[in-house]
Amino acid sequence: MNHTEQVGLSLAKKAGLHRRLYDWTLHWAHTPYGSIALFALAFCESSFFPIPPDVLLMALAFSIPRKSFKYAAICSVGSISGGCFGYFIGYQFFEYVGLPILNFYGIMDKFNFVKEKYNANAFAAVSVAGFTPIPYKLFTIAAGVCKINLWTFIIASTVSRSGRFFIVAGLVYLFGPKIKEFIDKYFNIISIVFVVLLIAGFFVVKLFK
C-alpha cells in the first residue's frame, strides 16, 4: 500500500468514527438521560471530544421546545466548565495531553494564529471563539498555554458559548422543528452577525469609557 492509499484509508477511518460518534450523540435525545448527556457532551467538546453539543441541544429542543432555554443553559454551563478543563490542560499538561489532542484533530497549524489573537486581545479572542469554525478546544487549550487571566477567560467564554447556544434555543422555541433546515444552512451567517454585534458592543463600551 502506497502513502496516498494509507492517507486515504486513515481519512476514511476517521470519517467513519466521526459518523458513529455523531449517531451515538444523537441517540441520547431519545433516552431519559438527555440533559445529563448534554452537559457531559458540552464539557468534553470544549477540551477533547469532536462532536459539537449543538447537535444534541437541537435534538432535545426540537423534542420539547418549551424547554429549549433550559437545555441551552445546561449546555452553556457544561461548555464553560469544560473550557476551564481545557484551560487547565493547556496550563499544566500541554506537552503531554494538549499537544496530542491538537495533533489528532490536525489543528496545530492554527495554534500560533490563536496565540497571536490572545496576545492582541484575550477577551475579544475568547468571545469570538465560540462562533468560529475553528474547534473551541483549540482556544481553551491555547488560553491555558498563554496563561491569560482565568476570570477574563471565564467571562468571555460565558458571553460566546451562552450566546451561541441561546441563539439556537431561541430559534427552536420561536419556530419549532421547521427551523432545523434554516439553522443547518445559515448558522454560520447567524454566527457572523452575532460576532459583528459583539464587536460593535466592544467599541461602544470603549467609546463611553
From TrEMBL:
InterPro entries: DedA_domain, VTT_dom
Keyword Transmembrane helix recorded: yes
Residue ranges annotated for the VTT domain, each copy included: 51-173
UniProt cross-references to PANTHER family, sorted A to Z: ALKALINE PHOSPHATASE LIKE PROTEIN, DEDA FAMILY PROTEIN
Protein species of origin: Candidatus Brocadia sinica JPN1
Alphabetized UniProt keyword annotations: Membrane, Transmembrane, Transmembrane helix
Entry superkingdom: Bacteria
Keyword Membrane on entry: yes
Protein name as it appears in the record: Alkaline phosphatase
Listed transmembrane segments: 118-136, 148-174, 186-208
Cross-referenced Pfam families: VTT_dom (PF09335)
